[in-house]
Amino acid sequence: MAPGGQAGGSGSPGSPREGLRDWIRSACRFAADRSDFRRNLIVNLGLFAAGVWVARNLTDIDLMAPQPVA
C-alpha cells in the first residue's frame, strides 16, 4: 500500500474503487494469516455461522421433488 493512499484520492474518479480494493486486500490478509489464533477463531466461527444459516434456510427446499416443466 502506498503511504497516504486514502487521503490523496478524495477527488479522483478511482478513489472508491481503490478503497474497495484495499478493503478486499485487507479482508484476504485477515482470513489468510495462519499464525494468529484469534483471527483463525473469528474466521472459523464466521464460516460456521454462515454454514448454519445456509443449512437452516435451505431445509425448506426438497431437492428430490420433481421440478415443474417450463
From TrEMBL:
Pfam family, one: TOM6p
Domain of life: Eukaryota
InterPro entries named in the record: TOMM6 (IPR029182)
Name under which the protein is recorded: Translocase of outer mitochondrial membrane 6
Gene Ontology cellular component list: mitochondrial outer membrane translocase complex
GN (gene name): tomm6
